[in-house]
Amino acid sequence: MTDRMQVALVGIGKIAVDQHVPAIKASTDWTLAATVSRSGTVPGVESFTTIEAMLAARPDIPVVSLALPPVPRFAYAKAALDAGRHVMLEKPPGATLAEIHALQDLAAMQGLTLYATWHSRMAQAVAPAKAWLQGKAVTRAHITWREDVRKWHPGQDWVFEPGGMGVFDPGINALSILTEILPAPIHLTGATLTFPENRQTPIAAALAFSGNVTADFDWRQEGPQTWDIEVETPQGRLALRMGGNVLELNGKTVSGEAHIMGEYPALYARMADLCRRGQSDVDLAPMVHVADAMTLGRRDVTAAFNF
Ligand code: NAP
């Protein structure tokens, strides 16, 4: 690949440093041309503290990748699209569905690429799981997504503020996989959401969907972490473990290894392809389920949570 594209990365925080910067630097499609962050920087890369300053100073950068939390993201995405730049959104793609519809309209009007990424869909066993389930009837499915918020979001109070989504911040990853692999759509039929008494978003959620599909999300799990999706069909049982990285069929591991992180390189390869083709990719199905759970969910209150 010879035509590297320049990208500006916005929100130099945990995921930008852990995944976006290494993925961009390792890619032959991309050059990290600038960063925007109020305090974060990447050594050797031109940095700005506001998106407006970056857009004004660097009209040569055609792509903006937003690794901010969901609530502030819309204003940044709109500014980038208004300035004629293609935009890549971290998951969840925004704070509300209507925001993302507005961005879709704006991108379409401007003839720009908008990519709402779902990194878990790029986990290596997701595509083989989808292929195995194609044409099969699903008789039951269950998600168990239990992790330790203190380990994965140390001190990130925004996850417990309105729009931070609480346990749905990881749970939406499971839903992004489920909505990718199931052969037919499902819809939420009930939910119980557990809120710490001092917080605005749930720390645990139990969901029920049509088609005998259920989900158990919990952010209080210490010790071993669980990111499993189990699916039953008349032809046998499928399980995705380790967040979509390991595929089991009828109890036997058939592909994948734990801890292989090719997800962000795959997202940037997809963005390069979308930009070259002049296409967008915005699938809101995972976020519709979260919005429905917030709409239909029963509220339980549990002990206060502090980092
Ligand atoms: P983070 O470290 O708390 O935030 C990222 C950066 O965004 C911060 O360093 C901050 O940079 C900027 N920011 C935060 N609040 C802002 C605000 N109100 N206005 C403007 N800028 C603000 O969060 P993160 O863990 O990287 O998560 C960011 C996104 O990536 C989320 O949507 C999350 O779901 C997703 N994600 C996270 C992980 C993970 O393991 N953490 C994994 C996959 C995806 P400055 O203060 O320098 O401006």
Describe, in plain words, how this protein is organized in 3D.
This protein has 307 residues and is α/β, with parallel strands linked by helices. The protein has nine helices and 15 strands. The strands form two sheets. A nine-stranded mixed beta sheet has the order 14-13-12-11-7-10-9-8-15. It has a six-stranded parallel beta sheet with strand order 3-2-1-4-5-6, with helices on both faces. The radius of gyration is 19 Å and the shape is globular. The mean pLDDT is 96. NADP nicotinamide-adenine-dinucleotide phosphate binds next to helix 1 and helix 3. The site of NADP nicotinamide-adenine-dinucleotide phosphate has 23 residues, from helix 1 and helix 3.
The average pLDDT is: 96
Largest sheet: 9 strands, mixed
The CATH homologous superfamily name of the largest domain equals Dihydrodipicolinate Reductase, domain 2
Distance linking N and C termini = 45 Å
Looking across the biggest beta sheet, what order are the strands in?
Answer: 14-13-12-11-7-10-9-8-15
Q: What share of residues are in beta strands?
A: 25-35%
In total, the number of domains comes to 2
Please state the CA-atom Rg, rounded to the nearest Å.
Answer: 19 Å
Task: Give the % helix.
Answer: 25-40%
The quaternary state of the protein chains shown equals: single chain
Annotated CATH topology of the largest domain: Dihydrodipicolinate Reductase, domain 2
What hetero molecules are in the model? NADP nicotinamide-adenine-dinucleotide phosphate
Give start-end ranges of low-pLDDT stretches: none
SSE pattern: EHEEHEHEHEHEHHEEEEEEEHHE
Given the structure, what is the number of helices? 9
SS-based structural class? alpha/beta
Number of strands: 15
> Overall 3D geometry?
globular
CATH class of the largest domain: Alpha Beta
> What's the architecture of the largest domain, going by CATH?
2-Layer Sandwich
